[in-house]
Design a protein that fits this description.
There is one protein chain. The chain is an alpha/beta fold and 230 residues long. 37% of the residues lie in helices and 31% in strands. It has 6 helices and 10 strands; from the N terminus they run E-H-E-E-E-H-E-E-E-H-E-H-E-H-E-H. It has helices at 9-17, 51-63, 123-136, 157-167, 176-186, 204-229, and strands at 2-6, 19-27, 30-37, 40-46, 69-78, 88-96, 119-120, 142-149, 169-173, 190-198. Helix 1 packs parallel to helix 6, helix 2 runs parallel beside helix 5 (176-186) and helix 3 packs across helix 6. Bound molecules: adenine.
């Protein structure tokens, strides 16, 4: 069974509509929709926004649903001039950009006393996602790279440049690294799939509401195609 997490209702609503044989259970104020999506057993859940919600949600998927893999679908701000609104980014790895124990000699982004700077996504899932994305979203580009997460909506140029130069991040959002972190601790393969809704700069608050729906459509189409293939 695959766990599918979206932070917001809008990001999972279309997936829920397409599910069969649905059973709903509420844990920690999150509704877990267990059933089939394109013939594949899944649990779809809206985690809520931010790293704590996302980490908790992942832990529930691990303990209660014993999922074999976790996919995070949603939207993000682009950190790379080549990655345009509507395009898709698949995570190679992910880290928490607001984790800072530099004072103790750790690189910014690394959780102290953990043995890794970033959490590495599942390569097989990523390869399948790339193929499916090219099939179902032929009009956009699909990129692969590091996704950086923090409890912050990034909407200024300086912060964006810092994220890009410090971490070589391709896009930024608010949950992926927490999902990767919790999946890593539980030994569960994961992939973050994000469609770009804005450029994470001074235009972000204007672009975000304008392009949110279009970006969500792209990630939902990819998710449905992915479930068909798995
Ligand atoms: N999700 C979508 N756009 C974002 C941004 N600019 N910063 C953080 N999360 C986002």
């Amino acid at each position: 069974m695959i766990g599918i997490i979206g932070a917001m209702d809008e990001e999972v609503a279309k997936l829920k509509e397409k599910m069969d044989d649905v059973k709903v259970e509420t844990i920690a104020a999150m509704d877990f929709y267990e059933g089939n999506l394109k013939g594949h057993p899944v649990v779809v859940v809206r985690s809520g926004i931010g790293k704590v919600n996302a980490g908790m949600c992942t832990q529930i998927l691990a303990l209660k649903y014993n999922v074999d893999a976790i996919i995070n679908t949603g939207i993000a701000g682009s950190l790379d001039a080549d990655i345009d609104i509507g395009d898709i980014v698949l995570s190679t790895d992910t880290l928490e950009h607001d984790m800072d124990a530099v004072a103790f000699g750790y690189p910014v982004g690394q959780v102290p006393r953990m043995d890794t700077l970033s959490f590495v996504a599942d390569e097989k899932l990523r390869n399948i996602a790339r193929e499916v994305c090219n099939e179902v979203n032929p009009d956009i580009s699909v990129f692969e790279g590091r996704i950086v997460s923090g409890d912050q909506f990034v909407s200024d140029k300086e912060k964006k440049e810092w994220l890009s130069s410090t971490f070589s991040g391709k896009c930024t959002e608010m949950e992926g690294a927490a999902i990767g972190h919790a999946a890593y601790l539980n030994g569960i393969p994961f992939l973050i799939i994000r469609a770009i809704s804005d450029k994470a700069d001074d235009s972000a608050t204007v672009d975000y509401p304008t392009f949110e729906a279009k970006a969500i459509d792209h990630s939902v189409r990819l998710l449905l195609g992915l479930c068909e293939r798995l």
